[in-house]
Amino acid sequence: MRGSVCRQAAALVAGLSLILGACTHNSASTEAANSELNTPPADYKREILGAMHAYLNDPTGIRDAAIAEPALKTVGNVPRYVVCLRFNAKKRDSDYAGVKEMAAVFLVGRFDRFLDKAKEQCAGATYTPFPELQKLTR
């Protein structure tokens, strides 16, 4: 009986070791995958300008455009490079909508999507003028 209890305890310890080892391995592979996904964007301004043509109804006449440097921020519980933007674009009726703040999310160093509600990601961002955005044409 005593030998049976020892064998069960040994089997339990061995099983837990395998499970914990798998967690550690998975954690390391997750970190490696995140580091590959989080390559800093090199040509982020050009990619944002291209995406704004599809995003905005009228990309002309933008005012007060500003941009922040890429920064690693949490987006949906995962780290991603984010570039914060501020601008005042025209609405459909040619009036201006007011200054809008949003974030461009990058994956593997390339533009992935815009976040319209980026208050958390852009908190504390340091903006510089982005005159290229103000010069967009149709």
Structural class: alpha+beta
- Total number of beta strands: 6
Given as residue ranges, the uncertain stretches (5+ residues, pLDDT < 50) are 12-16, 22-26
Q: Work out the radius of gyration.
A: 24 Å
Give, in order, the helices and strands. Answer: HHEEEEEHEH
Q: What is the makeup of the main sheet?
A: 6 strands, antiparallel
Mean pLDDT, as a whole number? Answer: 83
Helix content: 40-55%
Counting DSSP H or I runs of 4 or more residues, the number of helices is: 4
Termini separation: 83 Å
Q: Based on CA inertia axes, which overall geometry fits?
A: elongated
Strand content: 25-35%
How many independent structural domains? Answer: 2
Topology:
Blueprint: H1 2-37, H2 44-55, E1 63-68, E2 71-75, E3 78-88, E4 100-107, E5 110-115, H3 119-122, E6 127-129, H4 131-134
Describe this structure in words.
This protein has 138 residues and is an alpha+beta fold. It folds into two domains: 1-37; 44-134, no CATH class. It is 41% helix and 28% strand. It has helices spanning 2-37, 44-55, 119-122, 131-134, and strands at 63-68, 71-75, 78-88, 100-107, 110-115, 127-129. Strands 1, 2, 3, 4, 5 and 6 form a six-stranded antiparallel sheet that branches. A hairpin with a 2-residue loop joins strand 2 (71-75) and strand 3 (78-88).
Features of the shown structure:
alpha+beta; 28% strand; 4 helices; 138 residues; 6-stranded antiparallel sheet; 2 domains
